[in-house]
Amino acid sequence: MSLLQKGSARLLAKRLPVPRYRISVPTRPASSQASSPAASNARTLLYAAVFTASAGLFSIYYFDSRSALHRYVLTPAMRGLFDAETGHKLAVKALKYGIAAKDQVEDDASIQGEIWGQAVNNPIGVAAGFDKDGEAIDGLFDLGFSWVEIGSVTPKPQPGNPKPRVFRLEEDQAIINRYGFPSQGHAFVLSRLKERLPQFFTESKPASLRPGDLLAVNLGKNKDSPADSIDDFVAGVKSFGPLSDVLVINVSSPNTPGLRGLQNKDHLERLLAGVTKARDELEPSSLTSRRPKLVLKLAPDLDEDQLIDIADVVQQARIDGVIVSNTTIQRPKHLVNANKREIGGLSGPPVKAYSLKALKTLRQHLPESIPLIGCGGISTGADALEFAKAGASLVQIYTSFGYDGVGTCRRIKDELVAELKKEGKTWNEVVTAAVKQLSPVPSPLNEEIKKGEEAVSQLVAEANYLKNLLEEASENVTESQDKKPEAESVSKPSESVELAEAQASVVA
């Protein structure tokens, strides 16, 4: 290299210093290298423990509805995270898609119920309002309910009242709602019911598709329908009659303008006459081989005179049963939560006193043949038994189910078994004794009138039979006159005609 090149290189080195990097290679001490398999095993054990715990918790959640996990952890967490309506919708979806817990315990024989001469697995049902559009029918049956009531369903879809419209009163374990019958309409819910049906069935089944369980459809009316119109209810009977065990005529919601006015005697007579006529005109269902039962649902805010009038109308209209009751517009003084000021129907323990009073009054004015279903404030086995002693054949829950979660039905059934053991009786024995004690004793005069009406009906039937014979005899006489000489054809047939006429006139 020349002197010039060396000088240039030194100059560049001074102006552009080249950084030097030290590359350090970490080394592990011998002891660390020796412990790595142990650390790996520890991590594996940790993952396995976490997986096992998670699987165990899921099993407890999914397979055991009695677990306290539901009542004291999951349901309170849902209430803390979501408002009342959102939590309600999430619960319906969980039941719809089969990701909720199931009741795996067989019902004790002591709590077997009976209604209309039909045995039911237990007396606990879920009231209308929870599954409004028939999304979670089978999920609810899986929780152990023997009566699942969907709806209310209105003929046309409608959104219901503006939100917010559901309010928790946690200190009171109560709810106020003013939903206003949000519904996807007859056509949509009808398609849901049809989707449940098996493709082929060779024998009659209950509409629930489960022995010992009943499926009910609660019928409502659209907000824009005339207040005194019965058309929405008649349409509901025609639509859902073939696919239900029970149809519930709901005239008791406080959130549809004018609806409770249909509980007045004159309106109720026309309504019940219309729906019973529509039901009786149905062909027996190809699924159940019979027509559905008709049940009336009442408010707990009726006074004694109104309930007596309703009892009279129910008997005249041949309604099969009554649900007592819906939510109340009353506000007990002991309510604590600030939401007590909200407009709407109150449900939960505060309504129990009103429901029980109305049920007892109605039981005292209806014959034993017309069963009552108790609803309102039932949250324990002792509550259910109290309604049985007031004459309720079955009971329904709603608000306690919302607060305590999927294990509520099983918990109440277990508590009811314990209560009945204390009494030394079965559910049916308690109900039968109460109904016999509280129901009115048929008066001899009424029995004679009833027998007289039956006798008249029999005489009318016989008169019609004789009339038909008379017409046949007349036809035979006419034919014989055409074939035989006049004198021969008139003799004996005319005598039989005169005799038939005389008998028919006496019977008529």
Automatic annotation (TrEMBL):
GO cellular component term of the entry, any: mitochondrial inner membrane
Q: Where is the composition biased (Basic and acidic residues)?
A: 480-489
Give the protein's cofactors: FMN
Task: Spell out the SUPFAM superfamilies in the cross-references.
Answer: FMN-linked oxidoreductases
GO terms (molecular function) for this protein are: dihydroorotate dehydrogenase (quinone) activity
- Identify the enzyme class: oxidoreductase
Record region (Disordered)? 474-508
Which NCBIfam families does the entry link to? PRK05286.1-2, PRK05286.2-5, pyrD_sub2
> What PANTHER family does this protein's entry cite?
DIHYDROOROTATE DEHYDROGENASE (QUINONE), MITOCHONDRIAL (PTHR48109:SF4), DIHYDROOROTATE DEHYDROGENASE (QUINONE), MITOCHONDRIAL-RELATED (PTHR48109)
**Family assignment?**
Belongs to the dihydroorotate dehydrogenase family. Type 2 subfamily.
Q: What is this protein called?
A: Dihydroorotate dehydrogenase (quinone), mitochondrial
